[in-house]
Amino acid sequence: MPTPLHLLFDPSELPRIKTTLARPEFASFWRYAREADLADDERFLREEIKLDHPNADLARAANILQRSAFVHAIEPDPRQLAIARLALQRVLEFPRWDWILEAGRDTVGAMRNGTTSIAVVLSVDWLANDLTEAEHAAAVKFIADEAAPAAERAVFGMTHHDQVVGWGMDPAAQGFDQAYLDIDFSRWPAILDVNNLRIIATSGLAAAAAFLHGRHPRAAEWAAMADASMRLFVSRLPQDGSFPEGPDYWHFTFNYYMVSAELLRRHCGIDGRDAFDFPAMARYVQMVSVPTISAPDSCLNIGDAFKMSGAEPLAWIGRHFRDSTANQLVLQPGTIRDLPVSAWAAIWFDPTVPATRSADLPRDRVMFPGIVISRSGWGAEDAVLSLRSGEPENHEHADRNSLIFTAHGERLLHDPVKASYMRTQPKWQLRLTAAHTALLIDGRGHQYHNGEEGTNASQAHAKLVDYRTGRDWMLATSDAADAYTKAGLPVTRAQRTVIYFKPDVVIVFDEVDLTAALPVQTRWQADNHDGQAGVTSQSNGFTITRPNAWLQGRVVAGAACTINHDILPLPADEGVYPFAEVVSAAAQSHRLLTVCSATPTGDVHADWKITREPDGWLVTGTHRERAVTALIHSRPHGAPVVIL
């Protein structure tokens, strides 16, 4: 009978883990794991699984394996054991654990191989006392002969782009959208080198190194290679702990980073906890959290990110660095999810670490790649404003100078979530400028790609040209002329200035200069994920309503403008996405001022006085007992002069 390796926890830790699983925060996960529909799992594994579908079917089988193996390890159960053994058998029947090949022959373990390897080695360890020698030997052989070399090939290719023979789709792999099959993989070694998939590939190496430590001649080499890859990855990240791809991609990435770090530390003698300031990452996750009444795990959904981090990497940070901010995030609603990997949060959570938010967290911050964040507080009814400036980044959208604003428990200026990864699908539109609270020129957005290489970065840049903060206000100016010029538009200035009087008033001043007379549009998106948003337009502004709050926008312009409301042109079964639109008539110079105020439902807005000044406007009024005065003067070049 195989001997357990205790890859993630020792038997002495079982009482602690069981106590954690009994906490109310873990109740939903533990119920999901223990009460899974095992009959449905068995039917899938015996009758429905397709061994040429490595994307969906391999993932489902590996999830069943890890979930049932963990439950059996905590509370031995013959039914869970039987399903786990069947899942292991089917996972090992897949010819490959990925769908990219090098030179048309060898597996490149960049996509599914790492996550599957982790699931298999952990599950085999948890099941060790109940597996036959043959079952254990089959897992060892597949990891040693297929999974580890595939991971090594991926990591080597990401590090040494010039030595890659050529990556491409496995012609035997099925279940993919045609648009994915049409992707040009030629630059993927360089693209994946600097994004989250480096760590997913690396986790396959770490899994093999720990699982085969002391019983395979290359295990130590794989461990060293995994450590080097992880250190290289974090060395490239912003030192303030921010993660350019967003908090749920941070979660996915550092879930597998942390589990790899644990495997290397516990079994290979490599301690990587000094590789980065990991508590700074917890502060980043806190900064981009935007809980609302209907979505407690909401985040600043810049690009493809659409929800907060899950609990696992935060629990690891809390345990190893006794970080209270990380621990309090673990226990927030929606952080512990009904997923097999949530078992890692139960393994790592340390209840002796206080679960309290650090008192020194700033409420105003500019984060890489150029995201301005300003907030009034941290609760579901506090206000958060973001402005997207800066550089391109993986998983981004065409969103330069776009805004997100949340107040009184509702998202009132929105950026739609869950855009498609495939350009042939209708929700690809959600990636484009027209779906953001942003600016269009002659109905066109700024430069973006057409998915030729996947969801990689575009070439669009914006530049933060002014940024100031005070005790209860923030001011930022971002110029995105570069992004619009790259789309072939005759732009010399595409500048947005945002003045935020916390918590309820946002003044937006858009300046557009062109070399040809064209109309300009500003769009103001509503959050209609539950069908409860309303958008109306008036001659001098617009309103956006949600169940618990509403926003009023008062609009003035330097020339003729019209205001209307509409929905994005998607099929009805893809959702309804309403927005207000301000249209400035064709001209070479456009100046648009929008004064937005937010209140809880039932409250009233300020009666704004907006006075035209030479080259600008004076805005005055009192909103919810907050007196506001802003004098805004446009200049021929650079940021406007703003006097508060």
Describe this structure as you would to a colleague.
- The protein is α+β, with helices and mostly antiparallel strands.
- The protein has 17 helices and 22 strands.
- Among the domains are: 237-361, no CATH class; 364-643, Beta-galactosidase, Chain A, domain 5.
- It has helices at 14-21, 27-34, 38-48, 56-74, 78-93, 113-126, 133-159, 178-181, 188-193, 197-211, 219-235, 247-268, 278-287, 312-321, 324-330, 342-348, 481-485, and strands spanning 100-102, 106-108, 167-169, 364-367, 371-375, 384-388, 403-407, 410-413, 439-441, 463-469, 473-479, 491-501, 505-525, 534-538, 541-546, 549-557, 561-567, 578-600, 609-613, 616-623, 626-633, 641-643.
- The strands form four sheets. Strands 9, 10, 11, 12, 13, 14, 15, 16, 17 and 18 form a ten-stranded antiparallel beta sheet that branches. Strands 4-5-6-7-8 form a five-stranded antiparallel beta sheet, with no helix packed on it.
In short:
The protein is an alpha+beta fold. It is 32% helix and 24% strand.
Tell me about the largest β-sheet: 10 strands, antiparallel
Q: Low-confidence parts, pLDDT < 50 over ≥5 residues? A: none
* CATH fold annotation of the domain at 364-643: Beta-galactosidase, Chain A, domain 5
How much beta, percentage-wise? 15-25%
What would you call the structural class?
alpha+beta
Q: What radius of gyration results from the CA coordinates?
A: 26 Å
Considering DSSP H and I runs of 4 or more, what fraction of the residues is helical? Answer: 25-40%
Number of helices: 17
Q: Return the average pLDDT rounded to an integer.
A: 96
What's the CATH architecture of the domain at 364-643? Distorted Sandwich
* Shape type: elongated
Q: What's the total number of strands?
A: 22
CATH class of the domain at 364-643: Mainly Beta
First-last Cα distance: 75 Å
